[in-house]
Amino acid sequence: MKSLRSSAAGAALILAALAGIGPANAAAPTAAAPTAAAPVASTSPSALPGFADGYGLTVVPEATEVHSATDFTITVTTKQLAGRHRIRILLPSGYAADSGRRWPVTYFLHGGGGTVDDVAAAPALRSDSMITVVPDGGLKGWYADWVMQNTALGAANWQTFHTRQVVPFIDANLRTVPDRSHRAVVGLSMGGYGALRYAEARPDLFGRVASLSGGIDLGMAEIRAAVLATELNLTGAWCAVSTSTPSGTGRCTGYGAYVDSDAIFGSPYPIFGADHIWNEVDPAAATNLARLAGTDITLYTGNQGPIDHYTEIASATVKTRLDQLGIPSRYVDYGNGSSLAPGCDGSHTYGCWAPALADYVPRLAAAFAAADQAN
After folding, report:
1. 52: exposed, middle or buried (Cβ count in 10 Å: 0-12, 13-18, 19+)
2. Average pLDDT of the chain, as a whole number
3. Model confidence pLDDT, tens digit, residues 11-33
4. Using an 8 Å Cβ cutoff, are 48 and 132 in contact?
């Protein structure tokens, strides 16, 4: 594992190198990613489950998007974040008919430059065994409560929004099984960081976690540079392939407004402890990993291309440290993708993430079912 160079010039060179490799990686084959379905006229918002305001969230009824009776998007506002924010919800097909049944919930965290509609690129998440909730994570939210709250983006407390507001809001408005054994958090790329970080920060909420090609080792200069690239809106390789939009092209349109390079986690430079926040929220730190004892952990990564080359290193580091701590985990390194699916080339795309989720979701459903039997 490399440590971040102590000079600003050195870090800038790393950042520039990572931010500039997008075009080369853009030529890599990707699976065609489905776009969000258009609203279905035959299903009206009134036919959907009702959502009452609560936990600091206010629903914007006129902004509800209906894709089907079991696939819809609500919009909320909160003091924790500036503006409106969407939450896409996928219900099991039997949700309405089986009115006495409660369901486990999986939270899916999208990647940088992505949106809640990226879930359309992962059909396995439309499961009749669970509710899937896809909260907005921002183009560069990094699933964190930002150090700076006065940037062009305004209030940015993403972790608080998700863990202290969205989770109890969903439990209050849908028929969930509201315990950690029946709640999972799954994410890819930037969302892979978020998933592991949330599982560590709130083990009381999440009993199951999966990170796919996650930026999960903030001790790596390359991962820190990727965060800086999002802050500075440098649309390099991470942005180019971490989303299924627009229009299924697999290319994102950017990270939004420019913010200070210290906005999210503070200074990234390891000089006199200036980077202490980065270290405190590093999912790969042993003190944080120790909080995953008793959590069902799965890590997926390929090793091809300029991005998954680094996510493989990060994932292997996390796996090694979990082993050293005696914490069981499942680690799937599908390399060049040939062992995973014909459409996977081992790179940082939904061509690999969709089949990885197709492998994971049935295992997750079985774990949820086993938790039912244990109760």
Report:
1. exposed
2. 88
3. 444 444 333 333 222 222 233 34
4. no
Percent of the chain scored above 90 by pLDDT? 81
Question: What single-letter amino acid sits at 109?
Answer: L
List CB contacts of 365: < 8 A, sequence separation 6 or more: 127, 129, 130
| pLDDT of 363 over the 80 cut | yes
Instruction: Band the pLDDT of 157: cuts 50, 70, 90.
Output: very high
- Beta carbons of 296 and 203 less than 8 angstroms apart: no
Q: Give the right CATH number for 8-374 from 2.30.130.10, 3.40.50.1820, 3.40.50.1470, 3.40.47.10.
A: 3.40.50.1820
- Using a cut of 0.85, tell me whether the model's pTM lies above it: yes
Secondary structure (H, E, C), the chain: CCCCCCCHHHHHHHHHHHHCCHHHHHCCCCCCCCCCCCCCCCCCHHHCCCCCCECCEEECHHHCEEEECCEEEEEEEECCEEEEEEEEEECCCCCCCCCCCCECEEEEECCCCCCHHHHHHCHHHCCCCCEEEEECCCCCCCCCECCCCCCCCCCEEHHHHHHHHHHHHHHHHCCECCCHHHEEEEEECHHHHHHHHHHHHCCCCCCEEEEECCCCCCCCHHHHHHHHHHHCCCCCHHHHHCCCCCCCCCCCCCCCCCCCCCCCCCCCCCCCCCCHHHHHCCCCCHHHHHHHCCCEEEEEEECCHHHHHHHHHHHHHHHHHHHHHCCCCEEEEEECCCCCCCCCCCCCCHHHHHHHHHHHHHHHHHHHHHHHHHC
- What's the number of CA atoms in the CB half-sphere (13 Å) around residue 353? 33
Place of tokens 């990613």: 33
In this structure, the number of other CB atoms found within 10 A of the CB of residue 47 comes to: 11
